[in-house]
Design a protein that fits this description.
Elements: E1 4-8, H1 14-18, E2 27-31, H2 35-45, E3 48-49, H3 52-55, E4 60-63, H4 68-75, E5 85-88, H5 94-105, E6 110-113, E7 116-117, H6 119-125, E8 128-133, H7 136-147, E9 150-157, H8 161-189, H9 194-201, H10 209-219, H11 230-246, H12 252-267, H13 278-285
Parallel strand pairs: 1-2, 1-4, 2-3, 4-5, 5-6, 8-9
Antiparallel strand pairs: 7-8
The protein binds NADPH dihydro-nicotinamide-adenine-dinucleotide phosphate (NDP).
Keywords: NAD, Oxidoreductase
Domain 3-hydroxyisobutyrate dehydrogenase-like NAD-binding: 160-281
Organism: Acinetobacter sichuanensis
């Protein structure tokens, strides 16, 4: 039985994810580096803003930080309760998940790498997908806590497997983003109505998550709302490229996409959404996707 749950890292994802936990569990602790956000969360959702040492006394401890390195920084400061399960929802590095799992196992704590997809809207609606790596028994015990925030929760393998699936997913999304930018720039150059073209493509075999959501809701309307930062996508594509290199595979499309996303990130304004990567193509062609 899970009595207490903690959430560490109340960013774009964590703030919304942790909001669901008080509906299912009596004691929900939240901690954020900027403590004002934790206090705000407590007053908005009935969680308890606590210090880090208290947060890690929960039965289940979630973390959702930008990188695995940030999670390591937290792990070095705390002694979680023996028998607890640490569920890291960061889109992290597979090899680091293995060292984090070994490090926590020495303290009698289980570690699951459990990155999520579904964006901030999925976090808000508790419809996230969790892709989980780690011990099967710990996964079963932790399932109700993940079910409070997600609608599809899969154990995909041992430690690191969840992070690997997430990195490849985001790399595939980046490939689709670059393909859509190239395709729609070409259509605009030929005088095609982009909104009508989008309607056709979304009813045809060229559609993707990018054409179904990012193009209409972020790019063609020129809104580019910041919900998933471009540097975070660049981090994920980097993890995917490392996975491919470690497996000694050749993946030319992925390699090229990684270079394009890094270039777009280098040119982007601070606090840019991932969808602004299309501006790289716009700067080359002098064509605006609208
Ligand atoms: P944000 O940048 O919005 O939030 C980051 C959070 O981490 C903040 O609470 C921040 O605290 C905290 N933080 C940053 N650095 C440190 C540190 N060194 N020590 C302690 N706390 C730190 O990120 P997101 O919520 O967008 O993303 C979090 C993770 O989820 C990333 O790995 C991302 O790739 C992944 N993800 C994001 C999605 C999205 O749509 N945004 C979708 C799916 C996955 P503070 O408030 O003090 O700055």
């Amino acid at each position: 039985m899970i009595q207490s749950v903690a959430f560490i890292g109340l960013g774009a994802m964590g703030y919304r994810m942790a909001a669901h936990l008080p509906k299912h569990f009596n004691d929900v602790y939240v901690w954020n580096r900027n403590s004002e956000k934790a206090k705000q969360h407590a007053s908005e959702f009935g969680t308890q803003a606590v210090d880090l040492q208290q947060a890690v006394q929960a039965d289940i401890i979630f973390s959702c930080l930008p990188t695995s390195q940030d999670v390591d920084g937290i792990l070095a400061q705390v002694s979680p309760k023996k028998g607890s399960i640490w569920i890291d929802c960061t889109s992290g590095v597979p090899d680091t998940a293995k060292t984090q799992a070994d490090y926590l196992a020495k303290q009698g704590v289980y570690f699951l790498d459990a990155p999520v997809s579904g964006q901030t809207i999925g976090a808000e609606n508790a419809t996230l997908t969790f892709m989980v790596g780690g011990d099967a028994a710990a996964f079963q015990r932790a399932l109700p806590a993940m079910q409070a925030m997600g609608s599809l929760i899969k154990l995909v393998g041992s430690s690191g497997a969840g992070f690997a699936v997430k990195a490849i997913n985001n790399m595939m999304m980046a490939v689709h983003l670059c393909a859509a930018a190239e395709g729609f720039t070409t259509l605009k150059a030929h005088g095609v109505d982009l909104n009508e073209a989008l309607a056709c493509i979304n009813a045809s075999s060229g559609k993707s998550g990018v054409t179904e959501t990012a193009l209409p809701q972020r790019i063609l309307n020129r809104e580019f709302p910041l919900t998933f930062a471009l540097p975070l996508l660049a981090k994920d594509t980097g993890i995917a490229v490392d996975l491919i290199r470690d497996a000694r595979l050749s993946a030319p499309v992925i390699g090229l996409t990684q270079s394009l996303i890094q270039a777009a990130n280098a040119l982007a304004e601070p606090n840019s959404d991932f969808s602004t990567a299309v501006k790289l193509y716009e700067s080359w062609s002098n064509i605006t996707l609208k």
